[in-house]
Amino acid sequence: MTTNQSLQARKTQVIARGQGNMYPVYVEKALNSEVWDVEGNRYIDLGTGIAVCNTGHSHPKVIAAVKEQVEKFSHTCIMVNPYEVGVELAEKLTAIAPGNSEKKAIFVSTGAEAVENCVKIARAKTGRRGVIAFNGGFHGRTNLAMALTGKITPYKNLFGPFPGDIFHAPFPIDVHGISVEQSLKALENLFKVDIAPEDTAAIIVEPVQGEGGFYQAPAEFLQALRKLCDQHGILLIADEIQTGFGRTGKMFSFEHAHVEPDLITMAKGIAGGFPIAAVVGKSEIMDAPNPGGLGGTYGGSPVACSAALAVLDVIESDNLIARANIIGQRFNQRLSKLKEKYPALILNVRNQGAMIALELIENGDAEQPNTALTQAIIAGAKKAGLILLACGFYGNVIRFLPALTMPDDIMTEALDNFEALFEQLA
Predict the structure, then answer these.
(1) For residue 42, what is the enclosing H or E element?
(2) Among 77, 295, 345, 395, which is 20 to 30 Å from 124 by CA?
C-alpha cells in the first residue's frame, strides 16, 4: 500500500531539499474545499495551494473547459501561432483591470516572470534604472524578483549577488509602529540618499503583503504613492499575484483604494491551478518594448487560457466577490472571539475579504513574535484535519486562504477544528 511516509522517503531521495514540503501529506484527490491523501485521510484546505484555487479544487466548469481545449490542441506558442482563447482572455483581463485607461496584456508562466517583465516594461518606457520595493514584500524566487523581495530567509539566503538599482523602504504597519507618514518620509530620504526620483523607473507594492504577513496597505498610502509617482514620472506597479481574482472582496485589491496602477501582475487565482500569469497595464506603457522583447515558450498556454476563462465565468456567475466578503466576516468574527479569550497570545485578526490573518505574540507584546506557537499550530494541523499556512516577517502569522466556493458547513467545521487545535496548544 502506498503511504504518505513511503512517498516522503521517495521524494527525499530525488527532489532537492530546497523544494521542501510543509506537510508529509500526498494528495490523491481534491474537491472544492476538501482534500484526501493517499491513505484516505480527509483535510479541509485553508491554503488553496497558496491562493490559487479561489474557485475551489476541480471545479466542473474549469475541468470541462480544459478537457475541451486539450481535445483541440495543447500548445502552439502564442508568439508563433496564436489562438482565440488567448485573445479572449486578454480582452477580459484588460476589461476588469482597475481604472479607465486603455490597457493591453502579455502572458507568461509564473508570478515571478510577471514581476520581472513589469520591470523590463517600466525601464523600457521610462529609460530609467531604479526600482523601489518595500520591506517584507514578496515578489518571487527568480534573481530580479528575489532582489525586490524584502525578506532574506529563506528566499534570498545563499543566492546573491543580486541585481543592482533595487531599493527598499519600510511598509506601513500601524500595529508595529510604522505609520504611513513614516513610510512616505523614508521614500523621501531614499530619493535624497540612494537614487533620484528622475532616475527611478517604478515603485512596486503589494496592496496586501502576502509572505510578509497579510498587512494591508492603507488606502491613503496607495493614494499617496500614486500621487508621488505622477509627480516624478515613476510607474506604479501593483503586485496583485496573491490578492487578485476576488480574493480580497474586489476583483483586485487596489480597487479598495480607488487607485489605478500603471502595471499589474496577475497569477495564482487566475486559472484554478493551471500555470499562467499575466501583466496588464496602460497601453502606451505596455507597448514600450520592441516586438520579441517580451514572452516565453509556455506563456499563455491555450489550456491555461481556457481554464482562466472558466474561472472568470465562475467568479461572475457564482458571485464569488461578494462571497469572499462573507467568508472574511465569518472568519473574523470567530477568530476575534478567540482573541478575546487569549489576548496575550493574539495580537489581532485582520482580513481584506477572504485574505485572513491571525498574528501570534507572547505576553501581549506586539514586538514579541510567537513563532513557536505558530509552528506548533502548523505542525498540528494535519491531525486536526486542516491544511494551514504561516507567513510573516518572523513566521508568526497564521494565514487563511479558503476557497471562495467553500460551503457554510465546511467553513464552520474548519473553524471549529482550528479553535480546538489552538486551545490545545495555547
Answers:
(1) strand 42-45
(2) 77
